Each structure stands twice: as C-alpha cells, then as structure tokens.
C-alpha cells in the first residue's frame, strides 16, 4: 500500500511501490486521504469548489493523475486506487490492514519540514505495525531512472548493481531487518551489505582508546558474524545473495548514511541496542529517514 498526496515525494513512492510490486509479484493499492482542513494541499489547489463534494472529486483526480503518470513495468501488476476522507495517518494505517508493506514519500527538502515530528511520513513510520519504506522525491537514482525510462527496451537494459544496506546490532529487531534485507537483495539480484556500527567516545588517553577500541571492534565483529550466521542457519545453510559484512567505528547514523550513499535501499530495525537503541523514537531513525539519499525501510 502506498500513500499518495500529489507531491513529488508521493509520486516517487508510487513509482518505487510499483517497481517493488513487479519484483515481488504483488498488487499495489494507491491511497489518498484528504480532510476538510487543508490536507493534502494538492487536493485544495485542484478543487474548483472547496466544499466536501468538490474536495472529494479533486482528491480522485489528483490520485488518478498521479497513477496515470507512473509507468507500470509489468502488466501483471495491478494498481488499485482508493480515496478516503479522514485523518491521514490513522486512515492510511487502516487501509494498510493486511498489506505486506507501506510506502510513503518524504516530500520536505528543507530543514523546517525535517524537524516536524508530526508529519504524515513520520506518523506512519512511528505507528505502522508492518514494514514501512520512505522514499524521497527526486533523490534516489533508481527512482529517477525508472521515471525516465518510458520504453520496455530502456527498462530491460537498465541494471542497478548498487547493494541493499542493512544495519545490524544483534537485537531481535535488527535480525528482522536482516531477514527482510536478504529478500530485498534477492529480488533485486544484488549484494547485501551488512553494517554494524560501534562508537567509543574517549577524547583523551589514546592508550585507553586502543585497548577498549580493540576489544569493542572484536566484539562488534562477533556480533555481526553471529547475526549473519543465524540467518544463514534459518535459510538451510546458504543465502540466496552475497553478503558483505562491515564493522564501522562510528555513530550509527553516520555509518548508515555513509553506506546509504551508494545503496538501492537502506534497511533498519525498529529497535536495537547501543547506537540503534530506540530507533523509531530516536535521532538515528529521524536522520536516516530525513537524510538518506535512497529509500529507507523501517522493519518491525
């Protein structure tokens, strides 16, 4: 299920959702939720008359125009349009009941929007009981390429070799993220890059840093190895994708954002330990969703 509001971010989210539906052989529901107090803005700008009937008609038109502008790579992928009146976050989550995934667009390029914790995007990420993917309009190279590729020949020759990146810390949440990331890499026929970030803030006494840093680095490697080996065992001793393991002596947000610079998707768990603690409610989640140049999947 993908939320649409007429913004460039939601158009990019719909393109991503349609492509993902083609990869996974799943139908797509494109949903637009409007209310009588001004959301989304595209509906009010389109409405000839700002009464309930006029807004409902404008909402249907905004959604239909957005869907019509998206190229469907596989004719077998169906896109169902759904328009509802109400509060966006609870209505979108209600529509998503039974869905495998929720996709929303991050439309704010400025610092002010990124600080608004009550946005629809952040609300869905915080409250959805299922995986959520946040897509930024115009930021991801694969989305831009998909929008520009209008012919089947162009689509056939387009190969995205960038990996899927997943943050791992050994917690139950990060193991769920790792499982999801393996599937995401498999359907894209690309590698998986598993990143474990550890950080020791010792501004002085280099010897102490060296001793503790070495121990933490070793522990980090064991944690990452154990997590990957757990998923390998679950898969019968072999994964369908190549896994590149990486431990990074940095904060979780910096490590993940740096890795996301060359990723198709960044995958994070909803909760973790250390740098990933309280991911949904903390700064790491906010920074990944607001700043990552690729789509971010938050997995519960």
Outline the secondary-structure elements:
Elements: E1 2-3, H1 8-24, E2 28-34, H2 41-46, H3 52-68, E3 79-85, H4 88-95, E4 102-106, H5 111-114, H6 120-127, E5 132-136, H7 141-148, H8 152-157, E6 164-167, H9 172-188, E7 192-198, H10 206-234, E8 243-249, H11 252-260, E9 265-269, H12 283-291, E10 296-299
Parallel strand pairs: 1-2, 2-3, 4-5, 6-7, 6-9, 7-8, 9-10
Antiparallel strand pairs: 5-10
Helix pairs in contact: 1-7, 4-6, 11-12
Structure description:
The protein is an alpha/beta fold and 300 residues long. It has two domains: 2-153, HUPs (Rossmann fold, 3-Layer(aba) Sandwich); 161-299, Rossmann fold, CATH 3.40.50. The chain contains twelve helices and ten strands. It has helices at residues 8-24, 41-46, 52-68, 88-95, 111-114, 120-127, 141-148, 152-157, 172-188, 206-234, 252-260, 283-291, and strands spanning 2-3, 28-34, 79-85, 102-106, 132-136, 164-167, 192-198, 243-249, 265-269, 296-299. It has a seven-stranded mixed β-sheet with strand order 4-5-10-9-6-7-8, with helices on both faces. It has a three-stranded parallel β-sheet with strand order 1-2-3, sandwiched between helices. Strand 1 (2-3), helix 1 (8-24) and strand 2 (28-34) form a beta-alpha-beta unit. Helix 1 (8-24) packs across helix 7 (141-148) and helix 4 crosses helix 6. The radius of gyration is 20 Å and the shape is elongated. Mean pLDDT is 85; it is low at 108-118, 139-157 and 272-282.
């Amino acid at each position: 299920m993908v939320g649409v509001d007429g913004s460039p971010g939601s158009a990019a989210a719909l393109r991503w959702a349609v492509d993902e539906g083609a990869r996974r052989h799943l139908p797509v529901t494109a949903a637009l939720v409007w209310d009588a107090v001004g959301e989304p803005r595209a509906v009010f700008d389109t409405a000839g008359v700002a009464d309930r009937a006029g807004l409902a008609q404008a909402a249907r038109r905004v959604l239909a125009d957005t869907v019509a502008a998206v190229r469907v790579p596989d004719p077998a992928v169906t896109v169902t349009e759904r328009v509802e009146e109400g509060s966006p976050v609870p209505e979108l989550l209600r529509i998503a009941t039974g869905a495998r995934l929720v996709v929303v667009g991050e439309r704010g390029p400025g610092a002010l929007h990124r600080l608004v914790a009550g946005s629809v995007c952040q609300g869905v990420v915080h409250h959805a009981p299922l995986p959520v993917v946040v897509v930024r309009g115009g930021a991801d190279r694969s989305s831009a390429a998909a929008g520009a590729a209008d012919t089947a020949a162009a689509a056939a020759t387009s190969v995205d070799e960038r990996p899927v990146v997943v943050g791992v810390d050994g917690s139950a949440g990060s193991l769920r993220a790792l499982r999801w990331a393996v599937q995401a890499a498999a359907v894209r026929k690309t590698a998986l890059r598993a990143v474990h970030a550890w950080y020791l803030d010792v501004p002085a006494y280099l010897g102490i840093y060296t001793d503790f840093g070495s121990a933490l680095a070793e522990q980090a490697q064991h944690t990452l190895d154990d997590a990957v080996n757990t998923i390998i065992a679950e898969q019968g001793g072999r994964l369908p994708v190549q896994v590149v393991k990486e431990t990074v002596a940095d904060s979780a947000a910096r490590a993940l954002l740096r890795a996301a610079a060359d990723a198709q998707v960044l995958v994070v768990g909803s909760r973790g330990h250390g740098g990933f603690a309280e991911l949904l409610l903390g700064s790491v989640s906010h920074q990944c969703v607001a700043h990552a140049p690729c789509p971010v999947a938050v997995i519960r």
